[in-house]
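Aim 2 progress update. The chain analyzed this quarter is reproduced below.
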Amino acid sequence: MSFLTRLFGTQPDPREEWRPLWHTIVEQAREPDWYRMCGVADTLEGRFDMVTLVLSLVLLRMEADKDLAPHTALVTELFVEDMEGQLREAGIGDPTVGKNIGNLMSSMGGRLGSYRTALGNEDRAALAEALRRNVTMAQEDESYALAERMIRLHKRLGRTSADQLRAGEIAA
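Predicted structure tokens:
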């Protein structure tokens, strides 16, 4: 959708359909047990890492469904929109916002790849290693606990229907 179309409001923004899911991703990333029980650092970096972790799991779930797969870009755009707003709020100026977003997306792609491989093989050791590389940990020895919790969320997402996901719901 072009900027002018959005500006003049002639068509609804297709990302809005996915905003409830984006809010759920952020809610899940802020779940206190990630920090208390799984050793993730409760810092700006740790929180960003958790958003990208949960987003990665959601994108993997969407990729696995032929009806959802085409919409992964819209969910990713919501991530970029939110991160851009966070950078601006933190005082990052216009000249460097684009570069920072580019770095965030590159980081996101690398994480998505390593999580996809480890989860696909149910390789807990590889997943724990990927988490040590990609998540700011307050306690690195908790990476296996983080991997187990991540696997549980991955399985919950696998049991979540496309309609539930679109509505921002995750199966129990």
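The longest helix spans residues 94-120. The CA atoms of residues 41 and 123 lie 24 Å apart. These observations will guide the mutagenesis experiments scheduled for the next reporting period.
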